[in-house]
Amino acid sequence: MRRATTKPFDREFKKFSKEIQDAFEKQINFLLQDIRHPSLRAKKYDEDVDVWQARVTKNVRFYFRIIGDTYELLSIRKHKD
User: In the chain, what are the domain boundaries?
Assistant: First the structure.
């Protein structure tokens, strides 16, 4: 699998601290290896538009679609507790 980002994702990602960006890189590598990795807690977020959600940290999630062999990264944002 590989990854691709969208412009909205890129804009949002830049707003996060280096610490969160580094945590994201760790998590995206887990995703590229195995979507079922326990720390991701990946799940279908919106069945209608085929959007998935996965965990970066306790308070940050990223959203993506699976298109062929590519994870299309749509958004990254703080998660409401």
Answer: 2-78
Structure tokens at 67: 């298109």
DSSP code for 20:
H
Distance CA 18, CA 51 (A): 26
Whether the per-residue pLDDT at 81 is higher than 70: the answer is no
Strands 60-67, 43-46: pairing kind: unpaired
CA torsion sign, 46 to 68 to 30 to 62?
Answer: negative
pTM > 0.85: yes or no = yes
d(CA 15, CA 30): 22
What's the CA gap between 12 and 34, in Å, rounded? Answer: 24
CATH class as words, domain 2-78? alpha beta
